[in-house]
């Protein structure tokens, strides 16, 4: 049985407690080979979709951690303003600290909560959902956050969706390579095995790229274009269809 959307957000937020938030910035760069490249290309894709140099309001769902989406995009587009949303208070605190450090606090509204807590109006020119979907258990929670984002986007507005897809156990070679990535960065055999056990038990990614496209369709988006891939990770751009509700 699928987890209810509100409960799924609460469960996901609890996973990113203070201890996990503290290790996030370093760990995420190991877990995702090409972390910076994905964020840089995401900003470039949004700029290409919106038109370089224009003003835009960007919704950043799941912005906690190092606020990398905002820092990277803001450097490329100085006229963009951001709304950062995250249900995890420790993760959001990290983002707030990073925004202050980079001088971007004045360009960013910070919301402790979920996208559903925002006003229900199509006020945003674009959105990002990076590293979030595979942490939400069940398809209904995944569809719900996509619908919530779609309702707050202008018709035709682009969404950057990025995260893990494919069932981890279904791709043993990719899973083994993921373990080797940790070994490459200095992890011993016991730590590598613990990381592998954690990813197998701690996330619920869509089972395929087709499943990602179907979730986006059900959430109110046109067919996506993939622009980045790294082992289990993929990144896509999809546009809100005009009649999404």
UniProtKB/TrEMBL annotation:
InterPro entries: Methyltransf_25, SAM-dependent_MTases_sf. It holds the Pfam family Methyltransf_25. Residues 58-156 form the Methyltransferase domain. Residues 1-20 are annotated as: Disordered. Residues 7-20 have a biased composition (Basic and acidic residues). GO terms for molecular function: methyltransferase activity. GO terms for biological process: methylation. Keywords: Methyltransferase, Transferase. The keyword Transferase applies. This is Class I SAM-dependent methyltransferase. It comes from Methylobacterium ajmalii. The lineage of its organism: Bacteria, Pseudomonadati, Pseudomonadota, Alphaproteobacteria, Hyphomicrobiales.
């Amino acid at each position: 049985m699928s987890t209810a959307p509100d409960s799924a957000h609460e469960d996901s937020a609890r996973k990113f407690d203070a201890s996990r938030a503290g290790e996030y910035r370093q760990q995420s760069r190991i877990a995702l080979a090409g972390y910076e490249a994905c964020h840089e290309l995401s900003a470039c894709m949004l700029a290409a979709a919106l038109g370089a140099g224009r003003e835009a309001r960007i919704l950043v769902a799941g912005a906690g951690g190092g606020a990398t989406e905002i820092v990277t995009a803001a450097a490329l587009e100085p006229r963009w303003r951001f709304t950062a949303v995250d249900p995890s208070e420790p993760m959001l605190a990290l983002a707030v600290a990073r925004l202050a450090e980079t001088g971007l606090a004045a360009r960013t509204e910070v919301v402790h909560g979920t996208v559903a807590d925002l006003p229900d109006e199509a006020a945003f020119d674009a959105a990002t959902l990076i590293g979030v979907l595979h942490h939400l258990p069940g398809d209904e929670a995944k569809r719900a956050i996509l619908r919530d984002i779609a309702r707050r986007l202008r018709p035709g507005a682009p969404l950057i969706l990025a995260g893990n897809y494919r069932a981890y156990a279904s791709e043993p070679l990719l899973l083994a390579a993921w373990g080797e990535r940790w070994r490459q960065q200095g992890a011993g055999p016991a730590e590598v095995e613990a990381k592998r056990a954690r990813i197998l038990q701690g996330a619920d990614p869509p089972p395929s790229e087709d499943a990602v496209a179907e979730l986006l369709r059900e959430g109110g988006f046109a067919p996506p274009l993939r622009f980045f891939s790294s082992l289990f990770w993929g990144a896509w751009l999809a546009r809100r269809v005009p009649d999404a509700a």
